[in-house]
Structure formats: structure tokens, C-alpha cells
Write a structure and sequence with these properties.
The protein is mainly alpha-helical. It has one domain: Orthogonal Bundle (Arc Repressor Mutant, subunit A). Helices cover 50% and strands 9% of the residues. The chain contains five helices and three strands. Strands 1-3-2 form a three-stranded antiparallel β-sheet. The longest helix is centred in the C-terminal third of the chain and has 19 residues, at 75-93. The chain starts with 7 loop residues before the first helix and ends with a helix. The mean pLDDT is 82.
């Protein structure tokens, strides 16, 4: 399943909704380009959540939910990571008090 390209505004709207677990999975997928043969149900659920936000693609759209044979990074996810890094850097530069694991903190420690 190939996700529709999202605008930067749509991606910015997701910044405060992505959990640290989802963020770490997105980074993992971005580094490897694809994940295949996953059996851990928790990982599959996280990938399904990222898919629902349009940040990853499921390699075989014929497979039922939770049974994808391959998960792939996509342009939305790559741009989302870049946007979160920019926001995190701007907040750090402004010395805002941002609680841990909020607003992309997962990217700063990865």
C-alpha cells in the first residue's frame, strides 16, 4: 500500500501525536529502508499506526492488516523526521522547557 504524499503542514500537525515508540520505529525503518519478516505483534501494531498516519508503506497491499510481508520507508516519513529535527533544534535553541518524550524528543536521543 503506497501512502498519499502529505503536505508539510499535514506532517507538522502529526509532530505532537507520534509516540516515542512510533518515532523509534520510524527511525529504525528509515535507517534500513525496509523491514521484513517481523513476528513481534507489538512492532506490527506500531507499524500499522505509522501506516495510518501515512508515514510508512506496506510492501504487499494484498496481505491483511497485521500480516504485511515487508514494510518500507516512504517520503512522508523521511520528511516528517526532518521536520521533527528542525522543530526540536529550534526548541532547544530557544531553551524552551519541553518534557521528555514530547514533541520529537525521541529524535534527539536516537
Amino acid at each position: 500500500m503506497i501512502c498519499k504524499l502529505k503536505s508539510d503542514e499535514e506532517l507538522r500537525a502529526l509532530v505532537d501525536t507520534i509516540t516515542p515508540e512510533q518515532g523509534r520505529m520510524l527511525l529504525r525503518l528509515e535507517k534500513s529502508s525496509a523491514l521484513q519478516g517481523l513476528t513481534d505483534q507489538k512492532e506490527i501494531i506500531i507499524l500499522e499506526q505509522l501506516l495510518s498516519h501515512g508515514l510508512v508503506d506496506r510492501g504487499n497491499s494484498q496481505m491483511p492488516a497485521g500480516q504485511a510481508d515487508i514494510w518500507t520507508a516512504n517520503g512522508n516519513g523521511s520528511r516528517f523526521i526532518k521536520i521533527v529535527r528542525e522543530i526540536a533544534a529550534a526548541r532547544a535553541a530557544a531553551a524552551e522547557d519541553v518534557p521528555p518524550d514530547v514533541s520529537g524528543e525521541w529524535l534527539m536521543f536516537s
